[in-house]
Amino acid sequence: MGCGAMMKSVMEVLLLLMLFFTAHAKEKSYSPPEKPTQTRCRSPEKETFTCWWEPGSDGGLPTTYALYYCKENSETVYECPDYHTAGENSCFFNKNDTSIWVNYNISVVATNALGRAFSDPVDIDVVYIVEPNPPEKLTVAVMEDKGWPFLLVSWEPPHKADTRSGWITLIYELRVRLEEEEDWEMHHAGQQKMFNIFSLRSGGKYLVEVRCKPDHGFWSEWSSTSYVKVPDYFHREKSMWILVAVFSAFIFLILTWLLHMNSHSLKHCILPPVPGPKIKGFDKQLLKNGNSDEIFSALVVPNFPPASTSKYEEMLVEYLEVYVLEEQELMLEESKDLLDGCLKSENSRSDSDSGRGSCDSHTLLMDKCGETKEEERQTNRESSLIETQGWKEEAINHDTSGRVKTWPSVYSPLPQYGSNPLDKQSSLETAKQHSLSTSSFLTQAGTKDALGPSYTDFCFSNKQNHLHPQTLAHRELQTRSDVNISNIGRKRSPATEYVEVQRVNKEDMVLLQPVVSRCGHIEGCPNLPKGEDYSKVKGVDCDNRLLLQREGTGEDVCPLVDQETNGEGGNCYTSSTVSTTQKPTACMYTSMPLQEETALTLNGYVDTATMSNLPSC
Amino acid sequence: MAVCSSVPISDLLDRASQGSDKLHALSTTISQDLNSHFPPIGRVIMPRPSMCHTSSLQTPSDKQQALQVSESDLLSLARSLLQAWSDPLLMGPAAQTISLLPFSGGNDIGQDRISQLINFNFLLSCFRRDSHKIDSFLKVLRCRATKTQPQMC
């Protein structure tokens, strides 16, 4: 019979006895005790254990409780050895009475005068009911880790539990919460007996508790609460943040100010300006103002184009051209330059004698034919004594070179020469001028190939304008070329032809004949008249004849003397028969004796001042 | 031929105790799960078989006895228990295997369902206890092996 069956039979016997005794008891509403309830049995260290029961109603009568147990495979019933150590309604089993890995069958019996009550039996094995005591000596300390605090929690296992021999293996768990909060923060610590808690609130008060559990058992109760207060480190933290914020705001302000100051240069750096026009001397502001004169005046470079008045004047050409046309039209072109050349003495290298209108390069012309012209001027001057009729034509002509020639309206005078060479003193000067101005000459100017060989230039002075037309009206030089020109007309306009004075007829007309000769002698100027073709006017004889004189004035001049004139009026004219082909090499230098004291200027012109000394008839 | 590097005994015992711990936890879970299928009254009236087949093994019954056992004996006890439970159902009456361990009787579950359940339940209870024994022995041995690391105990 097992341990349990034995227990039951004993209980039944006792119950019968109690019933017998209670039959004689008073008639009260007493009842036998109620069945007690076994609550639990626990062993704290796996060495001892305790069982507790819950008694039922006692039925109004004093009730006693007894615990009986028996061990596995043994039929011995034992009663609880210790009812007091563990307190009320408990039974404590000490080490001697405790066997492990053995089943216990425990029953509690409640007994009163009326009856007994048996609790349900319970099978337990001590190793399965281990519930240690809570950990002991819980300590919590506030530690610091790089300026941040944390809690260092440490504890010890319950003193009864023998963990050092390994009899019990405990694992721990702790919980933390702030004082003002309700929820715990759980932390599993394993088998270690210390733990760190981080993320603390500054100035907070914490509660820490810890409990333990054997490897196969029940959790212990929570240990006693340990309180800890975290010091205020937020204060320092907040002030630090304030400092950081202020500092960064300051830096931001400085950066903004710097950016503002350098915004212009930054703009240039990031967005380089589009290069505008760079014209030296070009002022945009002037352009914006709208004054174009100022702008362009700024653009004007000084000294450009090079302009010297002398050259300028030289370049400004006014021609008096004589065109030989089929219609026998004569066009005269006045050359300012020629006039000036006449006036000036040696300075003037202007080709006043040359057929300027048809020669593009005046200077060239002048250099080459200067000497020749001088001689011719002289000759022409003398011939100017002859009354010639000035042309008063005004026309605008375009020569082959494209120059516009203007025809001066005035024309010419020469009061002194001619019939009345000796005028008053007062008019002498003017006469001088006039003689110069009115010296007409027929030259053969070197022209370009475009121009014809026949060309006649008349040199008129600018100062003709100042002359009194009245005094000069009767002195008009007139040139009739219709007779002679007819011989000349080889080329039509615009080609110009050269003519030469053939003779002066009795009617005070200069008879012209075209010049066929070419000036091959002069370098670079094939059309320049040879010295032999030109005659300088020596003077005017009494018969109003031009006394032509030839004179060698330079190396380049190769005068061919055809005739000599003497002041006595031998031959009043010279006619130069020039062959069409004149060899340039035929260069004879002939000097003609000057008649009397004809004052000749260096360029071979007759000085009108001395003209009065000429012998006159 | 590969050279075995020695593993400290403490590590081995630690690893073993961890295994035994898991073993016992599993046995406990299964036993409790099976007992929940029985009504409480049935547990009371359930006839209890005689003894576990491993009851012949003399194991310490209290702490003092257990701590007095030498390490080698503890280890051999643990090993024997483990071997007994490698195939418990073989240890039936039909099994006449020759073993080093003394066994009294065998485990016969029975033919009908009730007896099968009762016998199986008993078998599980024996296993639960023995796994606890193994676990306890190994942990005592682990603690004894790590004198330099008291935190292991």
Automatic annotation (TrEMBL), chain A:
Keywords from UniProt, A to Z, are: Disulfide bond, Glycoprotein, Membrane, Metal-binding, Receptor, Repeat, Signal, Transmembrane, Transmembrane helix, Zinc
Q: Which GO terms describe its cellular component?
A: external side of plasma membrane
Q: Which CDD domains match?
A: FN3
Which protein, by its recorded name, is this? Prolactin receptor
Give the span(s) annotated as Disordered.
345-409
Q: What residues does the Fibronectin type-III domain cover?
A: 32-132, 134-233
What family does this belong to?
Belongs to the type I cytokine receptor family. Type 1 subfamily.
Species the sequence originates in? Dissostichus eleginoides
Annotated Basic and acidic residues bias: 368-380, 390-402
Where exactly are the transmembrane stretches of this chain? 240-259
Just give the chief location class.
Answer: membrane
Pfam families tied to this protein: EpoR_lig-bind
- Keyword Nucleotidyltransferase present in the record's keywords: the answer is no
- Signal peptide per UniProt: 1-25
Per its UniProt record, what InterPro entries does this chain match? FN3_dom (IPR003961), FN3_sf (IPR036116), Growth/epo_recpt_lig-bind (IPR015152), Ig-like_fold (IPR013783), Long_hematopoietin_rcpt_CS (IPR003528)
* Molecular function as annotated in GO: cytokine receptor activity; metal ion binding
The uppermost taxa in this organism's lineage are:
Eukaryota, Metazoa, Chordata, Craniata, Vertebrata
TrEMBL record, chain B:
Tell me which family the UniProt entry assigns to this protein. Belongs to the somatotropin/prolactin family.
Q: Which Gene3D superfamilies does the entry mention?
A: 1.20.1250.10
Q: Where in the cell is it found?
A: Secreted
User: What's a Pfam family in this record?
Assistant: Hormone_1
Species of the source: Dissostichus eleginoides (Patagonian toothfish)
Q: Which domain of life is it from?
A: Eukaryota
Q: Name one GO biological process term.
A: positive regulation of receptor signaling pathway via JAK-STAT
Q: Cellular component per GO? A: extracellular space
Query: Molecular function terms in GO for this entry?
Result: hormone activity
Record keywords: Disulfide bond, Hormone, Secreted, Signal
InterPro entries documented for this protein: 4_helix_cytokine-like_core, Somatotropin/Prolactin, Somatotropin_CS
Q: What is this protein called?
A: Prolactin
